[in-house]
Amino acid sequence: MKVKICGITNKDDATWALNYGADFLGVNFWKGSKRYVSPTNAEGWVPALPTFASVIGVFVDADPGDIASLAAKLNLRGVQLHGAETPDYVRLLKKALEINETPPLIIKAIRVKGPDSAAELAAFAPLVDYFLLDSFVEGEPGGTGATFDWAWIEPAKALGKPVFLAGGLTPDNVKDAVKKTMPFAVDVASGVEKSPKRKDLEKMRAFITNAKK
Fold first, then answer.
1. Model confidence over 89-147: pLDDT tens digits?
2. Which of 6, 13, 23, 187 is flagged as catalytic?
3. Rounded distance, CA 165 to CA 109, Å?
4. CATH number reported for the structural domain that contains residue 34 in this entry
5. Does the active-site annotation cover 172?
6. Domain interval for residue 94
7. Catalytic residue among 13, 23, 134, 187, which?
8. Is the pTM above the cut of 0.85?
């Protein structure tokens, strides 16, 4: 089981997440996020992380050229699209990402409203590497701490792409979530925080340990 710790805002939290066994680190570049990290700030610590760190940049309807440029500067292993991006947008992004020696993987996120939400992902299946399912909360692209009916992951898995399960996961419920849904990975932000800008190290350790059991 893979684990992504999202909303990382500093090198210390990133280092501890890696020490505890996180497979992916999410850094949010959307200005509207409580966990926003500016590109200038990220340039000060992301490149200093160990070379094995898989850092995922989180974006919301950002310019494809800007994403590609930042991905090259920070050696991002992936980009997560958490807005209203279209398949045509993803095609433009894939072209832009070719400036990277190893183009980052693309994760398309969807905020799940109900069992039919996964149908929105079908057109993206030939274009992206992963899907991420998060809870729908009006006006919030993600990181809300709300859960959704985990049974709704099955239609997304049927599209043939590995799925990240997000939305309201905590150290207390992640083991149950893994057993019931068997996703490719689980994703957490608010569930392991002291505040939107700092992680709770004990919660982070417990989350990773419980997910990987």
1. 999 999 999 998 899 999 999 999 888 888 889 999 999 999 999 987 666 665 566 78
2. 6
3. 10
4. 3.20.20.70
5. no
6. 2-212
7. 134
8. yes
